[in-house]
Amino acid sequence: MRFHIITIFPNIYDSYMNESIIGRAIKNKIIEIKFYNPRDYIKAPRNNYRPVDDKPYGGGPGMVMRAEPILKAVEKAISKIKNKKKILIINFIPSAPKFTTIFAKTFSKKYTDIILICGRYEGIDARIDKILKTKKFSVGDYVLTGGELPAMVLIDSISRQIPGVLGKYESLEEERVSSSEVYTRPEVLKYKGKNYRVPKVLLSGNHKLIENWRKAKK
After folding, report:
1. Which 8-state DSSP code applies to residue 122?
2. Low-confidence ranges of the chain (pLDDT < 70)
3. How far apart are the first and last CA of the chain?
4. How distant, in Å, are the alpha carbons of 22, 44, 208, 212 from that of 175?
5. What is the 3-class SS of 71-86, one letter each residue?
6. 186: cis peptide before it, omega within 30°?
7. How far apart are CA 153 and CA 200, in angstroms?
């Protein structure tokens, strides 16, 4: 699986992509992540300033990202992809349908390359959605300053569905009986004069009772 990120702030990803499970998956070449900065596709004027935004038609506050540099960045990404039939292009919009694990499972099997467009400011010129036939998603009922965090969420969610990323299929929480409550040693945690104990059922050794308890806590 290859992820192609369209962003004017590629350095945002440095820490996250180099650590833990995602970092290991990249190192082991199970997934690949490439960056395309829209600023690189604007002809630099004499002062070397490359604006990717402009005032919105119809007035209003803020600025809107221009379509042309986004389109050129996406074209560059597509030019590096061999199988053009297995490409998915995603744009992030707060009012769009929410991304779920079901989508992550489907996309991990259906596509080899996913292009993630990270908007900024007041958003991106809406014509890119028509031209690129993007799939639009939201990651929650809130507004963020840009699409970089949602892109990280999708990369993490989709990557963990790819064989070899987590090591074992059983590591997927959604494929086993799990709960929102988990415990480990010590059996009795002493804190500020109080004892906090692990639920007795988890110490019983009765797998059926433990499974029922976990289902009730999901």
Report:
1. T
2. 44-50, 168-178
3. 31
4. 20, 51, 17, 16
5. HHHHHHHHHCCCCHHH
6. yes
7. 36
pTM for this model (two decimals): 0.88
CA 167/CA 21 separation, integer angstroms:
10
Q: Which long-range CB contacts under 8 A does 173-176 form with residues at least 24 apart?
A: 174/101
Q: What Rg value do the Cα atoms of the chain yield, rounded?
A: 22
pLDDT of residue 170: 52
Paired sense of beta strands 64-65 and 53-54, if any: antiparallel
Q: Each residue of 88-114: b (16+ CB within 10 Å) or e?
A: bbbbbbeeeeebeeebbbebbeebebb
SS3 category, 93: coil
CATH superfamily for 2-169 is SPOUT methyltransferase, trefoil knot domain (3.40.1280.10)
Measured in whole angstroms, the distance separating CA 156 from the mean position of its chain's CA atoms is 5
Give the pairing of strands 2-6 and 32-36: parallel
Instruction: Look at residue 215 in the predicted model and tell me its pLDDT.
Output: 86
Q: Are 1 and 114 in contact (CB under 8 A)?
A: yes
Question: Given this model, what pLDDT does residue 48 score?
Answer: 63
161-187: b or e for each residue (b if 16 or more CB lie within 10 Å)?
A: beeebbeeeeeeeeeeeeeeeeeeeee
Count of other CB atoms within 10 angstroms of residue 67: 18
